């Protein structure tokens, strides 16, 4: 039996539309959205995306996950239960420690990653990165400009679709004020962030505020961490007048508040031509807004301007969102080592960027 596709009520005169729709369906198939599990994991595509979003936010509320992933309550409950049952995320009680994993997802409203979840996410990242890299390499063999074309096209299409949805939701809210009053998760507004280089009053205080808040909450790093890091950053601040060192702040244009910091230290490693990217962090209020990407872009532009041959940084596996950003700027995870710092022993990922054509310094 054959079937004739119904014609749209509005005649389609743009030949690009069917091509875009066909490509979108092909992408969904290639990404595995129609399979019961994602790649070599036992996770559904919904749970996989949920895991990524929780990693991006550090601690994610159910309301926030519903909004950004566009899940209904049933889909969210299934995805969260899948992650909790697998030991990949754990519930968090506001104002207290981590709750028992035996507590059901319906009783809890916030989630955060476990160490096992971080390991699974790292595996997912590796698979996804490999898929993208292989596709770009293949495409660039045909067209050297393919990567730039793909990035700009996907970003433009995705941001346009998002903007249209925000506009439609705003119009719906205006038509239905009762629905607006009942909403528990208003659509987040894009952060208006500017990047400024150099010292700014409150730079050290805000850098420490954001670092201690994050690392105490997620790792329990307390007094020793704060004392050691503040002393180290204070030393760098005193050296910002030297041409190989610099700091950048992300400033919320609405409040004039520092909401992100990053530092390049061209001296502390003691190696000619090698810089140290340090203490990169953004405030929870601007996570996912692009502020972090702007900060790293500013730092790497400085690296290029000064002429550093290599940049090194240390991170941890748990900082999945930051690791993805580093990779987009050409950093490679060179090795994982166990170090003693801040009065404790823990694993560090050492990441390296080197100028094309140069070998990394030993």
Order of helices and strands: HHEHHEEHHHEHHEEEHEHEE
**Second rung of CATH, namely the architecture of the largest domain:** 3-Layer(aba) Sandwich
The assigned structural class equals alpha+beta
Low-confidence parts lasting 5 or more residues at pLDDT below 50?
Answer: 94-108, 179-188
CATH class bucket of the largest domain: Alpha Beta
Largest sheet: 7 strands, mixed
Integer average pLDDT = 79
How much of the sequence is in beta strands? 15-25%
Principal-axis shape equals globular
* Helix proportion range: 40-55%
The side-by-side strand order for the widest beta sheet comes to: 4-5-6-7-8-10-9
H/I helix tally: 11
Radius of gyration: 23 Å
Secondary structure: number of strands: 10
CATH topology of the largest domain: Aminopeptidase
CATH superfamily of the largest domain: Gcn5-related N-acetyltransferase (GNAT)
Q: How far is it from the N-terminal to the C-terminal residue, by CA? A: 68 Å
Domain count: the total is 2
Write the layout of secondary structure elements.
Blueprint: H1 16-30, H2 45-57, E1 59-61, H3 62-69, H4 73-85, E2 89-91, E3 110-113, H5 115-142, H6 146-175, H7 177-182, E4 193-197, H8 203-219, H9 223-237, E5 246-252, E6 257-265, E7 274-282, H10 291-306, E8 310-315, H11 320-328, E9 332-341, E10 344-354
Parallel strand pairs: 7-8
Antiparallel strand pairs: 1-3, 2-3, 4-5, 5-6, 6-7, 8-10, 9-10
Helix pairs in contact: 2-4, 8-9
């Amino acid at each position: 039996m054959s079937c004739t596709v119904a014609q749209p009520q509005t005649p389609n005169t743009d030949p690009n539309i069917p091509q875009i729709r066909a490509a979108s369906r092909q992408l969904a198939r290639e990404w595995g959205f129609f399979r019961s599990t994602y790649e070599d994991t036992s996770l559904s595509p919904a749970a996989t995306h949920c895991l990524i979003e929780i990693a991006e936010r550090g601690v994610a509320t159910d309301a926030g996950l519903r909004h950004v992933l566009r899940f209904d309550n049933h889909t969210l409950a299934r995805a969260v239960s899948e992650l909790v049952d697998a030991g990949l995320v754990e519930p968090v009680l506001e104002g207290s420690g981590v709750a028992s994993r035996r507590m059901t997802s319906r009783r809890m409203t916030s989630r955060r990653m476990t160490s096992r979840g971080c390991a699974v996410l790292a595996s997912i990242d590796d698979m996804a990165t490999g898929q993208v890299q292989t596709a770009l390499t293949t495409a660039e063999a045909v067209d050297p400009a393919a990567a730039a074309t793909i990035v700009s096209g996907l970003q433009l299409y995705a941001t346009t679709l998002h903007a249209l949805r925000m506009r439609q939701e705003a119009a719906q809210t205006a038509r239905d004020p009762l629905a607006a009053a009942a909403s528990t998760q208003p659509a987040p507004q894009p952060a208006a962030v500017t990047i400024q280089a150099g010292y700014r009053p409150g730079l050290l205080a805000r850098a420490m505020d954001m670092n201690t808040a994050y690392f105490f909450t997620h790792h329990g790093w307390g007094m020793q961490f704060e004392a050691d890091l503040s002393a180290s950053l204070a030393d760098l601040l005193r050296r910002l007048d030297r041409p190989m060192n610099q700091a950048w702040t992300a400033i919320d244009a609405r409040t004039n508040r520092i909401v992100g910091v990053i530092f390049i230290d061209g001296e502390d490693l003691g190696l000619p031509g090698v810089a140290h990217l340090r203490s990169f962090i953004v405030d929870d209020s601007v996570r996912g807004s692009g502020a972090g990407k702007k900060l790293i872009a500013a730092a790497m532009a400085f690296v290029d301007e000064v002429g550093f041959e290599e940049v090194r940084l240390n991170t941890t596996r748990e900082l999945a969102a930051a690791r993805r950003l580093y990779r987009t700027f050409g950093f490679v995870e060179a090795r994982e080592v166990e170090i003693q710092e801040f009065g404790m022993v823990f694993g560090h990922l050492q990441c390296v960027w080197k100028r094309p054509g140069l070998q990394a310094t030993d």
